[in-house]
Amino acid sequence: MPYPKRRHTEVLREVVQPFGGTIADIGCGRGALVGWFEKHGFHALGIDPQAVLHPTLAACAERLPLADSSLDHVLFFNSLHHVPVDAMAGALAEAARVVRHDGRVIVVEPLAEGRHFEMMQPVDDETEIRAAARAAIAVAAGGCLRQQAELFYDTTLVQQSPEEVLAEFLEVDPGRAGLIERARAEVVRRFGELGEPVDKGVAFNQPMRLNLLLPRP
To answer: In angstroms, what CA-CA distances link 5 with 13, 36, 87, 112, 205?
Structure first.
């Protein structure tokens, strides 16, 4: 059965409740979601290990420079699978530490399927790392956190060119430069084969999973 088509922000509006307060976006990149939350009345912090991206705080997910019970919400959006595998448990434990007793930890991760995943597979097949992130969530949900809900949806990513896609991929992890160059021709081919032309570019679907976690009493 296909997943329902949803926008990321539509889903976040539903699960980040109450819709307001303090939120940290862990692995925020350039801070697009931080800006979106601030626009909607949140006090939002962007945390990313890459200082060059100008986050609010440059820090690793497993060592958050935040006080205990200081946030209403902690969000990992497309970021937990970028944390080193041996640090994923620590990152989720840190989220549990800094969120208030009535707060929420939201983890949004891409599934290892969909046309966007297939397009980027030649650069870096993330099947195993995405599975590791899901396993870390399951362990945390039986320990420092408890799971309130898990939901799946399909979203659409519109890209302008394969060069734009590869540049975004490199920005997330500059260490991928060699992989990108070796796979460039195949990504260009798959971009043309898998993408659906639309008014604003070329569209690719990407199924997602959202885990809504609560701190344990």
So the answer is: 15, 21, 32, 17, 9
